[in-house]
Design goal:
Keywords: Signal. By secondary structure, the chain is α+β, with helices and mostly antiparallel strands. The protein is built from 4 helices and 7 strands. Helix content is 41%, strand content 17%. It is globular and about 40 Å long.
Amino acid sequence: MKKLVKFLFVSMILSFLAACGSDEERMEPRAVNEGEDKCEICHMMVPDDHHATQIVLTDGRHLMFDDVGDMWVWLEEQGDEEVDGAYVRDYHTEEWILFDEATFVYHEDFRTPMAYGIYSFASEEDAISFQEEEGMGDILSYEDLSSHSWERNMELMEEHDHDHHDHDHDEDEHVEETKEE
């Protein structure tokens, strides 16, 4: 009888752990699909770089964003009731890290896709080191983000739009040159 009770107890524990494991897998961020993934806010393509962020919803869907500021806007508008996990990328390694565990460095002149000027780091030490190397920027915790102004540097946005149009034009010229050859 003791063996049966022990067996049932161990089986229940293993079943519980297996169920928890599947929840954790569902919450994991996925790779960026360049050329397919569009930002939920601005609808621009999301590049596979250190600016990409994502939210995993409780139904398993992944929402992609091209800038931490756009993800913040979505969370402010939609709330986090259906959010299983929110992720940012470490500036140096581009590894996915939990949004609420990251440390951030902000400066209005930092170039980000939507000009929010915030870079994410896996550790506070990395953020401080980056700030010291750059000689500018404010260190922000996740908690600090709620009082952050979230203003975009519109001058950088205009430069980005201009550069984006020039880049598209250059690609078109390259395609034309390739066709002529």
